[in-house]
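pls design
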């Protein structure tokens, strides 16, 4: 999968430009900074974004240099996601399939990130501080360091472990768990010596434009622990997240009650 990302970004400009668009509703979106016109500053990063589920795209709908591995990798991550959601459901004291039955594991979006070498890395970031807008993120990285997580108000490097994946709790899982799980704030640094690539798979509702409402799970709220968030759809949440951009603040605050 990492090689597939490198193949795409290693193409000449004309080949890559065939996929360029700022229409975030396109099946495949290739651009730099999805929030270019809303965030406080631009990041040092190019991204290919693609909705991969619940209905897998046909190979001809994807960049030819990486279409096969994008489909195969998605199928494997979907299996992993179901297992993770079952474990998370049990951790909440719910039946194993609770989050799966809520369709948290149905939809998946894939983001191929490329962070070029930067001549002045101290002046920018690859990705600004943020938490993800989904239920769960499965992240694959190469060996180049740069990912950091905010822990006890300190930025901590996430070490590269060969063969391992990084898993983040996202905002929507924090919302439905009524703060039992907390989304992970993170950022990415850049460096002057080598480019960095990563693949982020976002789990969220299978149809982003679904009218299905998400609210704190009934079994997790009580008179002593009332709902902390109002109901929202995936589309409303992600639209708010995208319009706000990566400005360093949490998108969840807009939905608190």
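designed seq:
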């Amino acid at each position: 999968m990492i090689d597939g990302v490198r193949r795409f970004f290693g193409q000449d400009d004309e080949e890559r430009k065939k996929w360029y668009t700022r229409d975030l509703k396109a099946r495949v979106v290739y651009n730099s900074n999805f929030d270019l016109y809303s965030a406080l500053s631009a990041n040092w990063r190019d991204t290919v974004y693609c909705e991969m589920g619940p209905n897998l795209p046909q190979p001809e709908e994807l960049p030819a240099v990486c279409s096969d591995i994008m489909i195969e990798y998605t199928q494997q991550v979907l299996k992993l996601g179901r297992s993770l959601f079952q474990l998370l459901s049990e951790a909440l004291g719910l039946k194993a399939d609770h989050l799966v039955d809520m369709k948290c594991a149905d939809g998946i979006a894939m983001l191929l990130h490329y962070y070029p070498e930067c001549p002045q890395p101290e002046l920018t970031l690859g990705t600004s501080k943020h938490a993800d807008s989904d239920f769960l993120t499965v992240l694959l990285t190469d060996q180049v360091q740069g990912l950091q997580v905010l822990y006890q108000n300190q930025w901590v490097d996430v070490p590269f472990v060969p063969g391992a994946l990084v898993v983040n709790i996202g905002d929507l899982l924090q919302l439905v768990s009524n703060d039992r799980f907390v989304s992970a704030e993170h950022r990415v640094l850049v460096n002057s010596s080598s480019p960095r690539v990563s693949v982020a798979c976002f789990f969220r509702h299978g149809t982003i434009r679904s009218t299905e409402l998400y609210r704190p799970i009934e079994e997790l709220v009580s008179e002593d622990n009332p709902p902390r968030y109002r109901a929202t759809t995936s589309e409303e949440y992600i639209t708010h997240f995208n319009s706000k951009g990566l400005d360093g603040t949490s998108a969840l605050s807009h939905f608190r009650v």
